[in-house]
Amino acid sequence: MSYIGDTINTSATIAERAGAQIEDGAGRAVKFDSNGDVVLCSTSGEPALGLLIAQTPDNVELGDIVTVQIKDVGLWVSGGSFGKGTLLANDSQGRAVTAASNGFITAIALESSSGAGQFVKVQLIKSGYKL
To answer: What InterPro entries does its record include (predicted)?
Structure first.
């Protein structure tokens, strides 16, 4: 079988349908739901698809199209304090927290956070579960 053209999509973002209403979702981790739509991560340390970009509207309605960053350097809202270089997972609100044992490592902090609610620069690495 042969292919004509480039079959590799090098984009750092994808557009997906929101599977629920999302409030204040900018910079939060999302996952696919059972219908293949995106929703906020709701279980601490679960695998994340990526992050809603910073330009995400404050109120996203069910069925709206959202942009999800799936690789490279982006902004993630912090859920607590951590240092630069910390391996990060999501909390139950899709925010960045220090990855705990058996938590899925989604990113590495490129900046430190002094508390919850800060936009922090991260490198999305999705490197698997922390031992």
So the answer is: Phage_VT1-Sakai_H0018
Task: Inform me whether the pLDDT recorded for 1 exceeds 60.
Answer: no
Predicted structure pTM score: 0.92
Q: Give me 44's structure tokens.
A: 């601490």
Q: Which residues pair with 120 in a beta bridge?
A: 76
Classify residue 34 as left (phi > 0), alpha (psi -120 to 50) or beta.
Answer: alpha
Q: Which residues lie across from 21 on neighbouring strands?
A: none
Q: How far is the C-alpha of 105 from the C-alpha of 14, rounded, in Å?
A: 20
Where do the structural domains in the chain lie, given as residue ranges? 13-69, 72-129
pLDDT at 4 > cutoff 90: no
Q: How much is the pLDDT for 83?
A: 99
